[in-house]
Specification:
CATH architecture: Sandwich
CATH class: Mainly Beta
Number of strands: 6
Distance between the termini: 48 Å
CATH superfamily: Jelly Rolls
Number of domains: 1
Radius of gyration: 20 Å
Shape: globular
Order of helices and strands: HHHEEEHEEHEHH
Helix content: 40-55%
Strand content: 15-25%
């Protein structure tokens, strides 16, 4: 049987993990022993992420206060395919595998069903963005921690709070998420176009051989 995921536990308990506590007057978050040098500070990490380039340094510090930090062990499930999505994640360290399970495995939890590894995501990659855009969004893949990894997550209640307390930052975050979604759609569209062209080539070759 599929194990409960981190997101499923959140959905069930309605409790969010502890937030990062970054004083607004500081650039660097150093209260957690995981972070041993200024170069590993959360705001500086966020500054390196391209889709957040429109944020000022001050806005990144404010955004940092809305983020949650969690350490995942190797093989731990972040969310399962068909879970209700609750969070959007940045990979602060480590690696995450995105895996698509076939319909048979999802419906009956059969271990004999095929798992399709889609992509491995590394530090500064991000995933799960649709959870912030859609109500009751359903995960279309499973996310597994590979190696020990640290994720920074923002959840729907955090976004709602930002909308009320700092709409400028909320708007910029939603704009960034929309850009991510558009880029992924563009990539999928190009892949579909490439596959259609390949199919036509194969059909033409088969027709000529007959």
């Amino acid at each position: 049987m599929t194990k409960n995921s981190f997101e499923k536990d959140i959905e069930t308990s309605k409790e969010l993990p502890p937030k990062l506590d970054i004083p607004i007057l500081k650039y660097f978050w150093q209260s957690n022993p995981l972070f041993t040098s200024n170069k590993n500070s959360i705001p500086r990490f966020l500054r390196k992420i391209k889709v957040l380039e429109n944020f000022s340094d001050y806005e990144l510090r404010l955004l940092s206060k809305a983020l949650h930090l969690r350490q995942f062990s190797d093989g731990e499930t972040i969310f399962n395919q068909n879970d209700i999505g609750v969070g959007f994640y940045f990979i602060f360290s480590g690696r995450v595998d995105i895996i698509v399970e076939d319909d048979q495995r999802v419906s009956d939890s059969s271990n004999e069903s095929k798992l399709n590894h889609v992509v491995s995501l590394d530090k500064m990659d991000y995933f799960g963005e649709l959870a912030l855009l859609q109500q009751q969004s359903v995960r279309n893949a499973t996310a597994l921690a590979r190696e020990s990894c640290q994720l920074l997550g923002i959840f729907k209640p955090d976004l709602e709070n930002l909308i009320n307390t700092n709409p400028t930052i909320a708007t910029k975050l939603l704009q960034a998420v929309s850009i991510i979604t558009a880029n992924r759609l563009f990539s999928v569209t190009n892949e579909v176009r490439r596959l259609k062209f390949k199919i036509k080539q194969l059909e033409s070759q088969n027709a000529n051989s007959n």
